[in-house]
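REQUEST FORM: STRUCTURE PREDICTION
Request ID: SP-0412
Submitted by: Lab K.M.
Chain count: 1
Length (residues): 137
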Amino acid sequence: MSIEEKNEIKKSAYTEALRYIQNAKENLHKAKKHGKYYQDIKYVRSASGIAYSGMLLALDALLKIKNIHPAAKNRKSIDWYRDQLRRMDWKLLNDVNTTYEALHLIGYYEGTTSVKIIDAGLEGALSVIKHIKPTVN
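STATUS: Completed
RESULT:
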């Protein structure tokens, strides 16, 4: 894969992942923050799922650029991503773990309304997304 092709993948995925984050932030705004908590769990859950999906989109692009793909018959899981990242980048693995726990598990499944937890998840997601920020020529 050429540098131009890699940069095109990065550019496309980066733009789309940031769009996901923006959509998540719009949902959080609808959740109406009041002090340390959001008021409407429906929007927090939705925002958590959207932001987590944006992180996965960026992660998929990064792995594609590195020519890492799951076996044809296997579905990607968080464990599969973790295995790949253990071989590549521990800091990135930590960001993925934080995002997975804060947004996917606690935000989406458990339905937390904690601003602090959701913010930590968004910070982790953005950190992962920044790994695919295209270079400017």
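NOTES: The chain has one domain: 3-130.
Reviewed by: T.R.
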